[in-house]
Structures are given as C-alpha cells and as structure tokens.
Specification:
alpha/beta, Four Helix Bundle (Hemerythrin (Met), subunit A), Rossmann fold, 2 domains, seven-stranded mixed beta sheet, four-stranded mixed beta sheet
Length: about 350
C-alpha cells in the first residue's frame, strides 16, 4: 500500500481518506495552514498519522519564516505551533509529536534558520520512520494473542491509513496472517464517518485478508452467536490507569465483549499513553460538525434542522480491556504498573 502521508520536495503528500474507497486521490500541502486544515477536515486521520502530519506541518511553517534570530523567530514559531496544536484535541500523538519538534527547535534555535529547518525535517522524518517500526513491533507482540481460525472484530480504522505504515490493530491481524494463521475480520462500519466501511475494508481487501462488513448495531448479535473470537481496536489516548479513548462506539463494543466473555485488546504505540492523566475522565473529547451525522456522502438523511450530538470519541474504562499491546509488549492489568513501567 502507498503510505497515508509522505514528505516530497518541500511539501506533504496525503491520500485523501474522505474519498476512499471510491477514489484514490492525493492532497499536496505546501503550507502549515494546509496541513492543519487537512487534519481538521479528516483528509488524514488516525492518531499516529496526524502526529506525523503535525510534525511535517511544523517543518513547512518554519521553512516559510524569515526572522533570523530573537523574539521574532520565537513568536513566529509559536504561531505555527499553536495553529497545529489546536487542530484536534483528543489524540495524544499529535501533542507528543509537536513536543518532540519543540525540543529540537529549542536545541537548535541559536544556530540560525538553516540549521533549525534541517534539524526539524530530520526529526519529522524520524517520527515517521519510528512509527512504521513501532507498528511492526506491535504486530509481532499482538499476533501471539490470536489463534488460527479466529474471527476478529475491529472498530474504526487502525491500519496503515491511520499510521505511517502497517497499522496497530490491523498490524496485529497482518502479523498473524504472515505467521500462517487463518484470520477473518468483522469490520464495524463505524458511524458517522464510516472509517470501518470505507477504510478498513479497503485496506484488508487490498491485502487479500477475509473481511465481512457489519453495521455497528450488529456486533452484539454476532458475539452472542459465538461468531467473534476477539476484539482489537486502536486508541487515540490512554490514561495512566488504562482507560482508553477511541472512536465513538468503542465503549459499547467493549461492554458487549465483556458480557460475552470475549477478549478485548487495544493496540497502540507508547506515544499514545498519557501518564499525566490519572484516568479517562480527564481525556478531552472532540465534538465534530453535526452535519457528519445528518448526512452520508453529502446527502441529507434526516430532518435538516434536527439537533445533533457528535462526539468523535468515547472512553472505555480499563476494567473492560483484556490487554494493551504496545511496541514494548503486551501490558495487562493493573495498568498503573504495566504502562507506567513501559
């Protein structure tokens, strides 16, 4: 698969995930404002991917600066940083990546713009490269949890499109298949943005991995019938106690899995873990445009003026999570110990 995001000649290329699976179109961002808008408008999505995008956006912003030294440089850098920082509030990876980039800026700011630009680009490329390696490691650790012949339910898209490459939740599936295990995936459609129907199915179809699409409301029925062996999802932010924010609807799936005795796994890099937050109550939850619920594919499906709530994420309490798989291994409860000792 082509990567979801790539640096090409002083610009950032992204596959436009809003148009998949019908059209494989690409967006070229030449300014940090264009990158910020691409994150906000869901051209690119997925916690690791938007972290990479923000890092490259900062590079583009600094490349456009003219101030050489002093307060003006710091002021202009801060303007770029703050614009990217406020694009989406929930995913920890975005802030983690920007914090890494700030540290590089502060370390090199006395060397002039040329040195700053080179160092920032090198760091952004390192973030992208490390994410691809991290996902491979998550896959290696996580595939051991899956048995030959299992059917895995996943919610939203935590695959190559949400990362630099390979994916987190889908990375585990890919790794299991690479080990010769026969794995089938049930993909929740994931309303309202349909990441499961549009993106997860598209990825797995390209890889030749068996996939069946279901609506979000069908998961419990298939669990009760014994047709789901495990659930694997990604994450946008994980609190110190293991509470996990992921795409809206994940909490429902986790409760259903617990009721039906099905293991529920979270796959995420350690950059998604936020040890500053004691529990999920502190995780900021993004509310998105109501028209994402009122419309499907730009076509109105309800009364146009109906009041809508559209939280993009929910929080799954740690008690529903069987294990959290990171690039460092499989973490099990109590997560205050296993995650904090990462």
């Amino acid at each position: 698969m082509l990567p979801a995001i790539a640096w090409r000649g002083r610009s950032v290329i992204m596959i436009d995930q809003r148009k998949l699976p019908g059209q494989e179109a690409y967006v070229r961002c030449r300014t940090f404002i264009q990158v910020a808008q691409a994150i906000e408008k869901m051209v690119i999505r997925g916690a690791p991917a938007i972290g990479i995008a923000a890092a490259y956006g900062l590079v583009l912003g600094v490349m456009a600066l003219n101030a050489e030294t002093g307060r003006s440089l710091d002021r202009d850098f801060e303007k770029v940083y703050r614009r990217l920082e406020r694009t989406r509030p929930t995913a920890r990876n975005l802030f983690w990546a920007l914090e890494r980039m700030r540290a590089v800026y502060e370390r090199t700011r006395s060397g002039g713009l040329r040195a700053i630009r080179a160092a920032l680009l090198e760091e952004a490329q390192a973030i992208e490269r490390e994410d691809a390696e991290t996902n491979q490691a998550i896959g290696r650790h996580g595939q051991a949890l899956l048995r030959d012949g299992w059917t895995v339910l996943t919610h939203c898209n935590a695959g190559a499109l949400a990362t630099a490459a390979y994916g987190t939740a889908l990375g585990i599936v890919r790794a299991a298949v690479a080990e010769g295990k026969r794995i089938k995936v049930l993909a929740d459609e994931t309303r309202p943005f349909l990441q499961g129907a549009r993106l997860t199915v598209w990825e797995l179809d390209k890889d030749g991995i068996p996939v069946v699409l279901i609506t979000d409301g069908m998961a419990g029925w298939f669990m009760r019938r014994g047709e789901i062996s495990a659930v694997i999802v990604g994450a946008d932010r994980i609190a110190r106690n293991g509470d996990t924010a992921n795409k809206i609807g994940t909490y429902t799936v986790a409760v259903l899995a617990k009721e039906n005795g099905i293991p529920f796994y979270v796959a995420a890099p350690t950059s998604t873990i936020d040890l500053t937050l004691p529990d999920g109550a502190s995780i900021p939850i993004e509310e998105r445009n109501p028209d994402e619920v009122r419309e499907v594919g730009g076509r109105l499906i309800t009364v146009p003026y109906v009041e809508v709530r559209n939280p993009a994420f929910d929080v799954t309490p740690a008690k529903y999570i069987t294990a959290i798989v990171t690039e460092r291994g499989v973490c099990r409860p109590p997560y205050e110990t296993s995650l904090c000792g990462r």
